[in-house]
Amino acid sequence: MQIDTTPKLKSYDVVIIGGAMMGASVAWFLANRPDFDGTVLVVERAPAYEFSSTAHSNSCIRQQFTQPINVQVSQFGADYVHNFRQYMGGDPDVPDIHMQPFGYMYLAATAEGEQVLRAAQQMQAAEGAGTQILTRDMLAEQFPFYNLDGIRIGSHNPVDEGYFDGGCMFDWWRRKARAGGVEFINNEVTGISRSGNQVTGVVLADGTQIGAGHVVNAAGPRAGQVAQMAGLELPVEPRKRYTFVFEAARPLDVDLPLTVDPSGVHVRSEGKYYMAGCPPFEDPAVAPDDFIEDHSLWEEKVWPAIAERIPQFEALKLIQSWVGHYAYNTLDQNAIIGAHPEVSNFMMINGFSGHGLQQAPAMGRGLAEWIATGRYETLDLSPFAFDRIPAGQPLLEQAVI
């Protein structure tokens, strides 16, 4: 559909910079609040979204984290997926979203890795997750296709873990947000106006100035650049992550859990194919428009790791590959959400470092609550507050893929 480039108003209660998954989530949850009747503008520089992290996501969801708040966030995400139509107001035109519940499988090859998985499982179980620790014998019995040389234990949760149609959720959030009065434009924010401890508006690429009661930074990998426009530093940068889709000459006769190998490579079923991913050999920040692939990664890292762990995958045919960007929080690879302590109406929903899509329902809901009421009403997201950044106190998450 055609998207306007010019805003209809000169000022908005909320201006959201970035219309991909996080921006759409905030927009929808604001539009869906009976107690919020403010005006909302979403500014998206590339509304085809072909270069967004959302478009490059593998749409996975898990509860196997090492921080309780991340487990809770993803539990709401799973409930949201399971009850999508209900959460979207019961509209019969809204489709059900199916979750493919094959689970994640973390494999530990060291005593330290085993300790991390065992401690995490105890915490996850206390939060109501279905994670189970599997010994080598249990792994061999339940998943005989693994080569378990060097593996000490596995951690598996087939309950509310797997992948889902994140694109469907994203599409309907935008549709329903528009129906609820949110305005979307195709333009780029090139400046943010600020007076003391408040932002007052944004400047568009064509010079248009728009007043704003709140400005929401939902710019994904470009979040650091957006923060700088407001005179703020945000430790979020684009980092490349690779995805490979392949066909196996000897496919498994069961679905493959998303297997996180000690090598750093992960692989899962993808219909009749399989999907693998990993970071590059070196992992620097890159330009936000750099999507150049290192084709040696498949031959030198990914394929050898897959064939070593699953011998049936020695004969493969690569079908497709692509590079996406993590919005990488360099402090602790966890979200940064809420108001900036120095600029109280500059709102952040940034730095998800690869687990943003599954967290988008809880995060969008939470930020909408904060904008509308000044507090979190449902799930307390304060562990993700910006304050930990200047304090150098990371919210250490050890289960980052």
Automatic annotation (TrEMBL):
Every FAD dependent oxidoreductase domain range: 13-370
InterPro entries found in the cross-reference section: FAD-dep_OxRdtase, FAD/NAD-bd_sf
Coiled coil regions, renumbered to chain: none
Transmembrane domains' residue ranges: 12-31
Record Pfam families: DAO
This protein's UniProt keywords: Membrane, Oxidoreductase, Transmembrane, Transmembrane helix
Full protein name: FAD-binding oxidoreductase
Species of the source: Parasedimentitalea maritima
